Amino acid sequence: MVPQLLRNKNLATRFQILIEIAANQPYIQQKDIANRIGVTSQAVSDYISKLEKDGWISSQGRSRYRVTNEGVNWVLKALRELQEYSTDAERAITNINTWAAVADIDLKKGQTVGLVMKQGLLFATTYASKGAHGTATHSARKGEDAGITGIEGIVALEPGKITILEIPDIQDGGARSVYHEKLEKQVTHPKLIGAIGTESIVALRHLNREPDYLYGVTQAAVEAARSGMDFTVVCTKSASLPLQQKLSEENILYTMIDLRKK
Predict the structure, then answer these.
(1) 71, 130, 242, 254 — which has fewest CB within 10 A?
(2) Which residues of the chain have pLDDT under 70?
């Protein structure tokens, strides 16, 4: 997903001004900022007024500015989004000539193949004269990895479904206060499961179920959904809100189920 910073000129200019202030605070003149980022001094003045009003910078007199904690947090968030996008873009450019796919059938070098996504992986299969397709760079048996080049069309991908199973924090009873029958029903199906919080791990182990992910669960859920795979996150109530916020930022739909005993 393209970060808002690259889609919104207003946010991009705010970002540049905040970086200039952070690099030179507390003494920096508006005309110097204007020269460095390529806008007029009046434009910088208008932006600084808005940034101060929003609480992202503080003014300590003429040509004295500091970035506030709110401003720093926004810049760091924007930088993380840019880094993630940069990583995805680098991967796409690096692999633009040849993509790796799993051979869904025996392939021959030079064969035209259809491309589909299954279980989060790209598969090369029989070409049915429509949809995404490419050419096998070498022969491969079914189940082996195969190089695919000359890709045309868009690979159909249905985003994965994210389910959040919210359980109480330890001060509210933890795993002891979980509706275990309801939890068991949600985790018996073959799907990826992540756990956030000791209470979540204990609740799963009560059902003899170990989570697939203990670390980086939120990002794992995001990547799974982007790859078309369903993902279930068992997490405490306190960890649920940050997870929901991240999924919303990534425009990923989710279902939240309260597993607290009534």
Answers:
(1) 130
(2) 1, 91-96, 190
pLDDT tens for residues 135-144? 999 999 999 9
For the chain, helix (H) and strand (E) counts, in that order, are 9, 11
- Locate all alpha helices (DSSP H) within the chain, ordered by sequence: 4-7, 9-24, 30-37, 41-53, 69-94, 180-187, 198-205, 217-226, 237-249
pLDDT at 92: 65
CATH of 4-92, one of 3.90.1170.40, 1.10.10.10, 3.40.640.10, 1.10.275.10: 1.10.10.10
Q: Which two tokens stand for residue 36?
A: 């460095």
**Tens digits of per-residue pLDDT, 100-115?**
999 999 999 999 999 9
What are the residue boundaries of the structural domains of the chain, listed by start?
4-92, 98-152, 162-258
